[in-house]
Amino acid sequence: MSNTEAHPAELTCTATSSHGEVEILEPRDVPLGGPRAMLVRRTLPQRQRSFIGAWCFADHYGPEDVADSGGMDVAPHPHTGLQTVSWLFTGEIEHRDSGGVHGLVRPGEINLMTGGHGICHSEVSTSNTTVLHGVQLWVALPEHARDAPREFQHHAPELVELDGASLRVFLGSLAGSTSPVSTHTPLLGAELLLEPGATVELEVDPAFEHGLLVDTGRARTGGTSIEPGALAYLPTGRSTIMLDNTHDGPTRIILLGGTPFDEEIIMWWNFVGRTHEEITRFRDDWEAHSDRFGAVEGYVGKTDRIPAPPLPNAQLKPRRNPPSR
Fold first, then answer.
1. Rounded percentage of the chain residues whose pLDDT exceeds 70
2. Plot region of 272 (φ>0 → left; ψ -120 to 50 → alpha; else → beta)
3. DSSP symbol at 144
4. What is the DSSP letter of 46?
5. DSSP-derived pairing of the beta strands 187-194 and 177-178
6. Spatial separation of the C-alpha atoms in residues 68 and 169, rounded to whole Å
7. Where are the alpha helices (DSSP H) in 1-78?
8. Which end of the chain lies in a sparser environment, N or C, as judged by fewer CB atoms within 10 Å?
9. Closest C-alpha among 229, 153, 165, 209 to residue 191
10. Is 50 exceeded by the pLDDT of residue 237?
11. How many CA atoms lie within 13 A of 60 on its CB side?
């Protein structure tokens, strides 16, 4: 998914509140696409928090009636220095990339695309889609892997049943389930579905920091309520996470985790880099149709590719998380 804000910047700021050790990151609406833009809710990055582990970007969208919104139609656009993670609740998206991959994103299946040195791809909701609902996530690649070649991984995780909940682990390990999808830093990604009134305790790695993104319903952890669309940040040092479903129906949560990402990055438009000059070079290469990004075959749309927006007049400065507590 392309970061298609009208006025891109290194990082943007939204409301954040802290309740003891739980920090609540509030979402903001961002239009994705043209005149019938589909709105997404963005919780990462924020000026107060750039990462959760190496997770550096989180868009949450839907449920969206495609008859009203027109669905998703994102023309070929570039990426560097990151991995994209696509996870759907409902709908279906056709993926094409310059690594020659043509595949589908379906509910309960992870598609992870690596664009280290450079890749471009398109995303279009299919004619089978009536309601589009899911998350699009980015992972920053560490220094040793940020020039990694193009790669695409797909996995359909098993459903794990717990007392009062079920889950699917699409990255890392949780509740005895381990994803085979490879990453370049230790990560966790899982979808949790809590039954009405359920309380669930999950054993987690204390070296990880975690994020809890509530999709539907409401939840509470550590005495802090998490409203739909909000992302709760939990620092390192805990071996368990206790979750209460405070909604009268099921509550669905995306659980993200990873070891703290201590490198500085610049994230501008669809690029992750380290310096202003590097981001400028990525932009120039995209505008010049460089081999760095290649080309997407088979995409049919109103435009062949998304042009890069102009760089800001100010120097892009690297960001990192605040010091660990």
1. 91
2. beta
3. G
4. -
5. unpaired
6. 32
7. 66-69
8. C
9. 165
10. yes
11. 21
Q: Name the 3-class secondary structure at 285.
A: helix
Cα 279–Cα 84–Cα 23 angle in degrees, nearest 5: 90
Q: Summarize the confidence of residues 199-215 as an average pLDDT.
A: 98
Which pair of tokens denotes residue 108?
């309960």
**Apex 240 CA angle, 235 and 242, nearest 5:** 95
Under a CB-based contact definition with an 8 Å cutoff, are residues 151 and 82 in contact?
Answer: no
- pTM confidence score: 0.93
Which position has the token pair 């903001």? 28
Contacts of 320 by beta carbon, 8 Å cutoff, 6+ apart: 50, 51, 262, 263, 264, 265
How far is it, in rounded angstroms, from Cα 139 to Cα 135? 13
Which position has the higher pLDDT, 143 or 302? 143
- pLDDT above 90 for 198: yes
Q: Quick one: pLDDT band at residue 321, thresholds 50, 70, 90?
A: confident
Contact present, 69 and 98 (Cβ < 8 Å): no
Q: Phi, psi (5° rounding) for residue 318?
A: -70, 155
**In the block, residue with structure tokens 């920090």:** 23
Residue 158 token pair: 């098993």
Measured from the Cβ of residue 275, the count of other Cβ atoms closer than 10 Å reads: 14
Alpha helices in the chain (DSSP H): 66-69, 276-287
Q: What is the dihedral of CA 281, 286, 288, 292, to 10 degrees?
A: 80
User: Are 202 and 175 contacting, i.e. CB atoms less than 8 angstroms apart?
Assistant: yes
Residue 232 token pair = 């709760």
Going by C-alpha positions, the residue among 243, 281, 138 that lies closest to residue 234 is: 243
From 115, 76, 121, select the one nearest 103 (Cα to Cα).
121
Q: How many Cβ atoms are within 10 Å of 188's Cβ, its own excluded?
A: 25
Rounded CA separation 286/304 (Å)? 13
Q: Say how far apart CA 141 and CA 87 lie, in whole Å.
A: 19
